[in-house]
Amino acid sequence: MPRFNDNDISQRRETASKAKQAMLERFRARPAEDDPATVERRAARLAMSQAREARLAAREAELRAEAERQAIELKAREEEAARLAAEQAEREAIERRAEADKAVELLAEQKAARDARYAARKARRR
Length: 126
What we know:
This protein is mainly alpha-helical. It has a domain at 12-97. The chain contains 2 helices and no strands. The protein has helices spanning 9-29, 36-125.
């Protein structure tokens, strides 16, 4: 088993100090806000963000237009279905009236035939 590296307090303090110094140097080495590369990266991020927002807006507009088109189609189909139902109801009403008229004519013919038979019977009796 390897022997544990037992650093004394001064070595640990020195290591911590070096780590803090390295962090400070990395912070100082960071480019400034007015650095051309930083400005260019910021502009590129802004352009990508605006392009993304434009794509999202276009997609939303397209979805709204599609929803409106589907609503118009649905309304047209409902109106067509209502028109066809009204025509069917009208045809059925006409057929019922025609059947009722035929039934009335048949009853009138049967009554006329019955009346003719009664009249003939009466004429025979006289």
